[in-house]
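quick one
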Amino acid sequence: VTTKIRAAVLHAINEPLVIEELELDDPRPDEVLVQIKAAGLCHSDLHYINGSLSRPLPTVPGHEAAGVVLACGSAVKSVRPGDHVVPLFVPQCGSCESCLSGRTNLCRYFGVPESEPRIFRAGEPVGRSSTLGTFATHALANERSLVKVRSDAPFNRIFYCGCGVTTGVGAAVFDAKVQPGSSVIVFGIGGIGLNVLQGARLAGASTIVAVDTNSEREAMARKFGATRFFNPATCDGDVAAALLALTEGGADYSFECIGNTAVVEQAFNACHPLWGRCTVVGVTPNGKMSSFNPQSFLMGRSISGSIFGGAKGRRDIPRMVDWYMDGIINIDDLVTHRIKLDQINEGFDMMRSGESIRAVIEF
Ligand SMILES: [Zn+2]
Ligand SMILES: [Zn+2]
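structure w/ zinc ion:
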């Protein structure tokens, strides 16, 4: 028995996604069948479409979504049919060495290839992103890759907690642990950077500098907490030196939210030489390197990275949804475009051109 689904399929790098009817297997004992209600278009999906990250094709992309449980395997305990859920591209099994360590949010099941296909096209297997594949009317998720959320929260907002919101807000609040009164520089004011800005504001930072080559992002940056806007394209000299001056000696925290190895270097060199902490949030292309003067580390600058904002999905997403529902974080203004599954390629065009912050597919 299978579920007939409609899904967007990536057949070849840099080709438009194709909307097709596919078959989704029935849930195994530890799996849950989810009806997808809203799915966001994330930059990581674009990385797979343009080949800067690679995976076997054909595949159903999509990893940022919200939906309703339709059916559960016999061993599933934490959700039941009718529950509203957010799928997790970083699982949280709760019992592996990583989950129990208290030192990482990356469960041992994160990034592990699937043992058997779950989606088929005329009997032939089709892959899926992040063991989810949410650009589809339905998805199968392992119980460890799913969290129940409150049922009064709108799907076309909370889908964003499945990746971008949690990644950005969490990078500032959970990973870098931005302190009240501190200074922060955020490089790249898109769907992630805006969330880092509001995370820094939530944490009580007093100076928040937004850096982007697109000056049209300034108004949005200020709405999400930026106190200054800096456009590197208007800077003749060294960008890091200009930002050291602007922050009177260097930021306490900097965040790279683009995935550009040269900007990672700028972000590192723009933070305070004795205690500045640079956090890499953007996904840099495979094989590309950044370089640093190791003497900077001796003096006290540090650099680290953040996946999914250091969040553990089953623990932290319900809290993120509460923050949205209580007006503590703003998601409404980030969801700039509502589209249908058939418009997914136009949605990625808007992402490429910078017209959208977040486009959401509503089912
Ligand atoms: Zn994402
Ligand atoms: Zn685990």
